[in-house]
UniProtKB/TrEMBL annotation:
One of its GO terms (biological process) is protein folding. GO terms for molecular function: unfolded protein binding. This is CS domain-containing protein. It comes from Peronospora matthiolae. Signal peptide: none annotated.
Length: 196
């Protein structure tokens, strides 16, 4: 897990509030036609929901470096009662002393076990999985648990590309940037991601 410098539009104000700023760090980025809009836009949650019947089992989201799984445990369950085991390709989650597990599934991709963790905060269990392949788009958290459709894949690619641009160019603000076309693969674009 890495800490990233956060910048805002105040750090790099556009010359005009109605200006459309074209990101032009390189010829390849120019071809992407990434634009930063100055109007305020509410951020849409990137959480995906996995249900069994009508019951929400978990929600999840991913970024360039990690996948987060959010689960609402039964009321009254405390952190010491939870048993969560994370391995390179598998997660097991349940209550201590109970043989039946709530989650006992293979992951869609590999994780860095030493940097992955879980925590219970404000009644929500968060399993943070650090991707072994930075920039790789996971089709789902667990094998066989409803893969992302094409629109969700594109949305995730765009989000991760902007996250990558922000990481590689910390002095620029991409908080309101958006793509006006299809986004390239964030893992391989322009020489690939940097592992720093």
């Amino acid at each position: 897990m890495s800490l990233r410098k956060q910048t805002s539009i105040l750090d790099n104000p556009p010359s005009s509030h109605n200006a459309v700023i074209t990101y032009a760090i390189s010829r390849q980025a120019k071809r992407l036609n990434i634009q930063c809009r100055s109007d305020s836009m509410a951020t849409v949650s990137q959480r995906r929901v996995y249900k069994f019947g009508d019951r929400v089992i978990y929600e999840w989201e991913q970024s360039l470096e990690e996948v987060n799984v959010f689960i609402t445990p039964p009321e009254g369950v405390t952190a010491p009662q939870i048993q969560c085991e994370i391995s390179v390709n598998h997660v097991t989650l349940g209550l201590r002393g109970v043989s039946d597990k709530f989650i006992n599934h293979d992951l869609a991709s590999s994780v860095v076990v030493a940097e992955s963790y879980w925590m219970l905060d404000a009644g929500e269990l968060n399993i943070n999985l650090q991707k072994m392949k930075k920039g790789f788009i996971w089709p789902s958290v667990f094998v066989g648990h409803g893969e992302l459709d094409l629109m969700q894949q594109e949305s995730t690619k765009q989000k991760m590309m902007l996250e990558r641009f922000q990481e590689e160019n910390p002095g620029l603000d991409f908080s309101n940037a958006e793509f006006s076309g299809a986004a390239p693969d964030p893992r391989t674009f322009m020489g690939g991601v940097k592992y720093t």
